[in-house]
Amino acid sequence: xxKQVKFLQGNEAVCEGAxxxxxxxxxxxxxxxxxxxxxxxxxxxxxxxxRFIQMEDELAAMAATLGGSIAGxxxxxxxxxxxxxxxxxxxxxxxxTEIPCVIVNVMRGGPxxxxxxxxxxxxxxxxRWGTHGDHPCIAxxxxxxxxxxxxxxxxxNLAEKYRMPVILLTDEIIGHMREAxxxxxxxxxxxxxxxxxxxxxxxxxxxxxxxxxxxxxxxFGSGYRYHITGLNHLxxxxxxxxxxxxxxxxxxxxxKVDDNYDEIVVVDEMMCDDAEILIFAFGSTARSAKEAVQMxxxxxxxxxxxxxxxxxxxxxxxxxxxxxxxxxxxxxEMNLGQTALxxxxxxxxxxxxEGIFQIDSEPINPxxxxxxxxxxx
Amino acid sequence: xxxxxxRLSGSGGQGMITAGIILAAGASVLEGKKAIQSQSYxxxxxxxxxxxxxxxxxxxxxYPKVMAPDVLVALxxxxxxxxxxxxxxxxxLILDDLMVKTAPKGNWKVYMMPIIRTAAEKVGKAMxxxxxxxxxxxxxCGFVKPETLEKAVLSRVPKGTxxxxxxxxxxxxELAKAAKAQ
Lengths: 377, 182
What we know:
The structure holds two protein chains of two kinds.
Chain A: E1 5-9, H1 10-21, E2 23-28, H2 35-44, E3 51-54, H3 58-70, E4 74-79, H4 81-97, E5 101-109, E6 115-119, H5 124-129, E7 139-140, H6 145-162, E8 165-171, H7 172-176, E9 178-182, H8 243-258, H9 261-264, E10 267-270, E11 277-280, H10 283-298, E12 303-308, E13 310-312, H11 316-320, E14 328-333, H12 338-347, E15 353-357, H13 366-375
Parallel strand pairs in A: 2-3, 2-4, 4-5, 5-8, 7-8, 11-12, 11-14, 14-15
Antiparallel strand pairs in A: 1-9, 5-6, 7-13, 10-12
Helix pairs in contact in A: 1-2, 1-6, 3-4, 10-13
Chain B: E1 4-11, H1 16-30, E2 34-40, E3 49-57, E4 71-74, H2 77-83, E5 92-96, E6 109-113, H3 115-123, H4 129-141, H5 146-154, H6 162-181
Parallel strand pairs in B: 1-4, 4-5, 5-6
Antiparallel strand pairs in B: 1-3, 2-3
Helix pairs in contact in B: 1-4, 1-5, 3-4, 3-6, 4-6, 5-6
């Protein structure tokens, strides 16, 4: 049977994805251009037996999101740059205490209040390093409204599987545009639930990882009593000031992501096989780049698009295939060169990275990219 | 079919964004074409120039914004002046005769029509000016079948307003027919 097709806004598709994944708790504080996520879930969650709460600010919203997850509900919060800045303290708490949840950042112009109604992509490094301390990071960058839905489901799955916060790093253009979406039926997309303990509650150690590096997580209130702290801790959850143990634990957490690169990192490589010029672009800018690649191909120019759906961990392994193979690499992005730095790190000058950096709150026009392709270095 | 790039503009609150959503949803969900709707707006909730953009094509659409519109609807003078700058040569310009006193100059086919007056006086509610617009726009450009437009409108309007909205579509079609006959 043909799938149901709906004409959805990007932010609406995030909600559909979250509900499909089994999200039943949302805590947030409204901010343009993410507000529709809160608005829609406020209406829909209670009907599904879920809870929606508007907190006094984003700091509290992040705390409540973690709380919802500790209580056993898949939890979501959505915000934009200024709100993301406020969430950083509790996001770090989420990493250290290994609490699964999904944070949607619909990027706008910044810093500070910036350009509230226009698009931006300036929070790439914030997603990776915005909270202090070494920690693993997963951030996904959808380019279509369909991907807003599917990648939200994937974000929940990764959060649950690896027991950590996952960021959906989208932007105003994708968040607010509308296009047709094929609605998945139950069973079409995988839905992952966290491991829960099966041992006797008195034997439960909340931070004793199994072979996959992940410890089963008990719902608070389910009879498993345990301690959660933002201090480095022992397997029983109580604080420890032992630096050696802390280092080993942080490395284990980082390895949860590093060792599973092949599962976590998804890249769409379009017309890259014979490409002499590679465009690296994500999110809405990848749409501009795709248009530019089509235009250039029509003129016989051998150019391909490398589009990461996972921006963190950075797609090093995928990108390395092009080191020394392509003549030029162009990175268009709505910031002043954040992912370009990472592309440089991977390619180590072969070839040199050329940027198209734009922060005027306007999408990068395909013609701008086409001109760069045709203009030479 | 070539790619149609349509810009619907006016003042925030006039329903141009809703009109864009209805048109694009009709083309994509009901007729299986590729369609994208996007919008831009200022920090104001009401007032200020507001625009919705719709792209309809038989082929995949990557860049979601209108690069140069071939059709522009403007329900205010400010929108007409601001958003007509990149209207393509030979493009279609649809204006409201009450709000737009001076039609911008260009090599375009201009339709100056009483959209808002028709909504307020003939249909009976000024707020359906956006649906009158859709009726007129689709009659002139033929983006979707007339029955598709009606279905798309009716699926997005509040219950109990179906007749009002059908009347608004038909009033728009009549306006366009009259304008085309001139």
